[in-house]
Structure formats: structure tokens, C-alpha cells
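Quick check before the chapter quiz. The format below is the same one you will see on the exam, so make sure you can read both the input and the output lines.
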Amino acid sequence: MSLIKCHLSYLLNKRAVVILTAAVVIAFFVCAINAAAVDAALGYRENNAIYFRTSFTTVKTMTVFSSIFLVCDFFSAKNSQYYYLISCDVSRVKYFTTKLHTVVLLQAGFVLLLYLLFNFAGVAFYAKYVFDARVVFSFFCLFIYAVYYGLAALAFYQALKNNYVIIFVFFLHLFSVITNEENEGLGRILNCFLLYLDTEGNFPYHPYHALLLIVLLFSFNLLFFLDKDL
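Here is the expected output.
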């Protein structure tokens, strides 16, 4: 626990706090606009479905970008120097796994906060908003999605050690979205190794497929980290 607290003190630096705050504000602002802009001529089921789809797209974008940024920023050379202060008591495996665990915990808290704000905006700005259990599963899938792209960013960042990785991996996310919307056949091939989450919050394949990709990426990142010189 003390090691995780140590990681958090470096993870939640000023730049990270600004990025996360901006992402939360943008996501909530868009949710509020979408909830207030529902069509009174439609039924409440249709309006709730439209509100979810239009808001989830923005929430997904903010979550993926935040995840990619957090991982790259936290594993940068500047935010990894403290390893030399604790290396006598902590193995490299423990250092890496607890550091990554800290990021995942923050990602989980971030997605949970966006879920709560999504519901708050719905209740506050649309009188007929209805809680839907399926939305919980969609946000859980969003969390898995964010972890995947965070690990993908870490793999590229460890190999290239360049901040432009943030833009590149975020572009991969956008490329996956565009490809699946424009070319379903190519999208299904791409989805085998590049995750896609649709506007309903569903993966094209079973969630176990997403978890398998996460395990593979985690293993690759750990081996890469253990093999490189700090």
C-alpha cells in the first residue's frame, strides 16, 4: 500500500491533474448538452437511447485519451527517476506491476466518475431519464477498452521513448473507429488485434478476447521492462 501511495504522488502531478480535470469537464458538459437537447416528440426510451449513444462517444474519447496520456506520462523518464531511491527494497517486477496497478486503479476511478456524471447529467437535464443496468456493463467495457489502449501506448512508449506516441496510439483508436464504421469486413479483421468499442459499449467479439489481448500486452510490457536498462 505504501508503494502505491508513492506511485500516486508521482502519477498525480500537475499536468496529469489538468488533463484529467479537462477531460471530466468536457465529458460532463457534452452529457449535459445532450440530455437537455432530447426531442420531446420522441418517447422516453428513444430519448434515453439517443442520450446514451451521443454521450458515450465523447466519454469514450476522453477516457481513451486520458488513459494513453497517463500511462506515457507516468512511465516517462522524468516520472521514473524515483525508482533509484527504492530499488534496494523493491524488485523490478514489483515496481512495474504496482506502478501499472496504480494507473489501472486511477483509470477505474476515472471511468466510475464519468459514469456517475453521465447519470447526474441525465437526471438533472432530462426529466424522463431512466437508469439502465446495461449502461453499467457498457462502462465496464469502456474500462477494459481504456486499459487495453493504455497498455498499447506503454508498449510503443517503451520501444520509442517519444511523447508523440500519445498522438499515434490515439490515432490508432480513431482509425479503429472509422474503419469499423466505414468498412465492416476490414473492421472485423482489424478487431482481432486492435480493439473497437461501438456506440452501444459493446465489443465486436467476446469480452474474453479483449482480456486476452490485455494479458498479452501486459506480458510483453513486463518482459520489455525487465530486459531494458533503466
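If your answer matched, good. The CA atoms of residues 108 and 143 lie 6 Å apart.
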